[in-house]
Specification:
Strand content: 35-45%
Number of strands: 12
CATH class: Alpha Beta
Number of domains: 1
Oligomer: single chain
CATH architecture: 3-Layer(bba) Sandwich
Largest sheet: 8 strands, antiparallel
Length: 179
Amino acid sequence: MLAFATIAIAPLPTTAGELAGVTMPEVVYSDDQALVLNGMGLRELIFLDVYIGGLYLPTKTNSSTTAINSDVRKRIVMHFVIRNVPKDRMVDSFRESLEANDGIEQFGERLEILYNAIEACQSNDTVTLDYVPGVGITLYKNNNPLATIPGADFMRAIWGIFIGENPPTEALRNGMLGL
């Protein structure tokens, strides 16, 4: 049985983060927990802008170790700026990134849940990974829940994709870490 966390994005009357024409609120809420925008980074592929990634944490940090290992509510938002990313390319990207960072053997059926839930994305779609301790990561597309994958170990592997030692691009990692 899948459990879904409530996702609500409510900006406060402060300036929002902006990168490459994409604006993200400074504060969002995971249930009643306020999360602050830690940073935003651009994911490029060759010469194409693919998405803007935003990292939300309870408190800001520029330490990837702290951001990855802290077992607290947190969120990653991918706002797509490219016209079309097919489902198979999205799945391949997650698979390749997991292999480059943490490995995938230990995740078994949890990977299948993720891969089956991933959908193709178009320009202005958002994919949100919302982590709740004791529940896991809930994957959303355009605020619609798709799946929940349990485990803090799985969260650390997914967060490692974006801000770990081998991110898709340094610009994405550094931007999300506010460097």
